[in-house]
Amino acid sequence: MFRYKTVISLCFVWQVSWCVDHNFPPNFKFGAATSSYQIEGGWDADGKGVNVWDKVVHSNPEMFCGNATGDIAADSYHKWREDVRIAAELGLQFYRFSINWVRILPTGFSNEINKAGVKYYSDLIDALLAEGIEPIVTLYHWELPAIIQDLGGWTNPLIVDWFGDYARVVYSLYADRVNTWITINEVIVICDYGYYSGIFAPNIKEPLLAPYLCNKHTMLAHAKAYRIYDTEFRPKYNGRVSIANHLIWIEPHSAKDEELATLGREYMVGRFTHAIFSKNGGWPPSIEKMMLKNSLAQGFNSFRVLAFTDEEREFVKGTADFFAMNQYTTYTIRPAKKGEVTEYVFLKALPDLNAVLEPPPHAHYGESKMMPIYPEGIRRQMVWLKKQYGDIDILITENGYSSTGQLDDYDRIDFLKKYLEQILMAIKVDKVNVVGYTVWSLIDNFEWLQGYTSKFGLYEVDFENPDKKRTPRASAHFYACVIKNRSLNDTCLNYDFGYKV
Ligand code: BGC
Questions:
Q1: Could you tell me if 155 and 191 are in contact, meaning their C-beta atoms sit under 8 angstroms apart?
Q2: pLDDT at site 65
Q3: What number is the average pLDDT over the span 303-313?
Q4: Quick one: pLDDT at residue 497?
Q5: Which of 82, 88, 100, 185 is 20–30 Å from 212 (CA)?
Q6: Nearest CA to ligand 1 atom 12
Q7: What's the distance, CA 469 to chain centroid?
Q8: What sections of 253-309 are H helices per DSSP?
Q9: CB under 6 Å to ligand 1: residues?
Q10: What sign for the dihedral angle of Cα 392, 394, 395, 398?
């Protein structure tokens, strides 16, 4: 009796994962994801237009490890049947992929529709449905039409309507078969990497105005696409729409940094979610206050970040049917020391907060050293979201591990197991409504600046081979087993590919 009580109270205090049962709830779905530029190739095939990534890989090859391009990538433009077969072999309940804007609209605008592009995605969707796999479609995973970038890209307010036109075309083609839509993938990468530090396409390095213009226009463009679905398509198809943000969980470096961590969370997450999910909409008030103070100190006459008008606030507020979250990593935050450089590159610092980011003390890096691994972060992030925005359904639209490529990828299995355990804790202990989990990625792909050196795939792709052969890694067997059993119990951990806990 005493022992039993001790175990119960230890469970309460430590909240360790063996305290919860390891079965996933019946409504929980498993999937995997990819994005068009990263896997498709066929960069100039069959009437496709040019996007900002096509442009930058050709004009600045030295930016990419091994001068890699996505010109051929995993050749999914031709090998999509193989991808569907793999998804079925894994037992996925859904497959999240994205549409390359200029494959459908080669001019970037809705004046011209490319039949071959339309057929490509239509065939893919049909094949998935034939296997009983739900297609989850992202409208925009960073492939901005080059011409729209020439016109200012995400800093030009007209993009809101152009994105709306694109969304309407895509819905009208596929909403009869696609029920779950993600409008935009990861505003933080689009705006902060693309327009602030300029390390990603379109490589604009203008930290004062550009990222915040981009930030606001992505919110409006998302809302436009949401409202078009809502009024023109929902009555007939009754699907659901959201936006997927990359959520980096922020922990205080020490107890005295708690307030800074709160501000850090609003900066890293609230900037892309408050307008949509909060009761009042617009920018998070703490960010608005900080940016006004910074603007005046920098010699501007007023707020250098565009404010939301009342009308815009109302337009954006409430435009999501669920919360879509990509979560990989956690950082700690502390104030910058005197003279410490705070450049916003690769998450080393946040200059607007005069703060420095560092990996949490017990985090480790995967083999390819991309992001600190900190499974508890995903749970804390979701508890925070619930507190901020209420009991909304959360779909984890990306989470994954980067390796250097071996087939017996036990580190990835360990990563998946630990993150899934934290997700179970969030569901069972914290009562967060997590409705699904997506592994990034189904197959190895073009990992942006890292080219083909960083491997996220459950399946290896042999990029040297013109056939781009796909081979399952140990983690693919593990994930298939978890999906089949709907549980993280020992069956899958002791699977006979040799892995033991
Ligand atoms: C992006 C993917 C990327 C992955 C790993 C995510 O933030 O959506 O495109 O490959 O991270 O870096």
A1: no
A2: 97
A3: 93
A4: 61
A5: 100
A6: 447
A7: 26
A8: 258-265, 271-277, 285-297
A9: 35, 38, 185-186, 189, 246, 326, 398, 440, 447, 456
A10: positive
Q: Spell out the domain ranges in the chain.
A: 19-497
Distance of CA 280 from the midpoint of ligand 1 (Å): 30
CA of 495 to the centre of ligand 1 (A): 29
CA distance 291 to 352: 8
Rounded to whole angstroms, what are the CA distances from 282 to 127, 164, 309, 429? Answer: 41, 20, 8, 32
Pairing of strands 470-472, 459-461: antiparallel
- Report which ligand 1 atom has the smallest distance to the Cα of 440: 4
Query: How far is residue 393's CA from residue 395's CA, in Å, rounded to a whole number?
Result: 7
CB 152 within 8 A of CB 213: no
Least confident of 72-86, 333-347, 434-448: 333-347
Residues carrying an active site annotation? 186, 398
Amino acid at 23: N
From 188, 190, 398, 455, the mutation candidate for ligand 1 (largest count of ligand atoms within 8 A of CB) is: 398
pLDDT at 157 over 60: yes
Distance from C-alpha of 285 to C-alpha of 176, rounded to nearest angstrom: 40
Q: What is the pTM of this model?
A: 0.96
Rounded average pLDDT over 228-256 = 98
Atom of ligand 1 nearest to the CA of 185: 8
* Topology given in CATH for the domain delimited by 19-497: TIM Barrel (3.20.20)
Q: What is the pLDDT of residue 501?
A: 42
